[in-house]
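Quiz preparation item.
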């Protein structure tokens, strides 16, 4: 599931990027580093007082096999620069919707260069290959990415004191 993204603007400002997207199951050695990213990005969820374990979630995404969850990583050469996962469930009140694009995170120094879009595209392709008719995502911070990839706002909800947009995309 390789992908490549490059724009003239990115080439002029930061150099061209061409990222490969591969299953997290093939890069289990990255779980320790990715766990640290999760804990820094989402401390309320994965931090010391959080409700979940970043390592446990990433290990589940890396399990492989035909079922969900399923994780992918973005690579620039040997450098892991992003991660995302396809899960059966995300929000307890929305268990009737599946699958969910979750855990999309790009290394801070590699953001705004198309890697998030490549990761999301890989999840869309994987969901379609698994014969899902649509894919869902809840976010407070990645709405512009979803809209650029032609996702539609399904509804706005409040969850744990945060306002989230729940998006969907037909596959």
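Solution:
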């Amino acid at each position: 599931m390789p992908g490549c993204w490059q724009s003239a603007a990115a080439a002029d400002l930061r150099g061209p990027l061409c990222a490969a997207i591969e299953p997290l199951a093939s890069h289990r050695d990255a779980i320790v580093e990715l766990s640290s990213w999760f804990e820094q990005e989402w401390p309320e969820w994965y931090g010391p007082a959080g409700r979940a374990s970043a390592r446990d979630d990433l290990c589940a995404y890396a399990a492989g096999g035909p079922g969900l969850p399923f994780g992918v990583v973005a690579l620039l050469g040997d450098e892991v620069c992003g991660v995302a996962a396809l899960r059966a469930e995300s929000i307890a009140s929305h268990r009737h919707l599946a699958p969910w694009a979750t855990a999309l995170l790009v290394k801070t120094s590699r953001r705004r260069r198309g890697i998030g879009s490549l990761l999301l595209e890989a999840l869309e392709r994987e969901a379609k290959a698994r014969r899902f008719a649509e894919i869902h995502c809840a976010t407070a911070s990645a709405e512009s990415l979803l809209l650029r990839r032609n996702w539609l706002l399904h509804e706005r909800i409040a969850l744990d004191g945060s306002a989230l947009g729940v998006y969907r995309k037909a596959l």
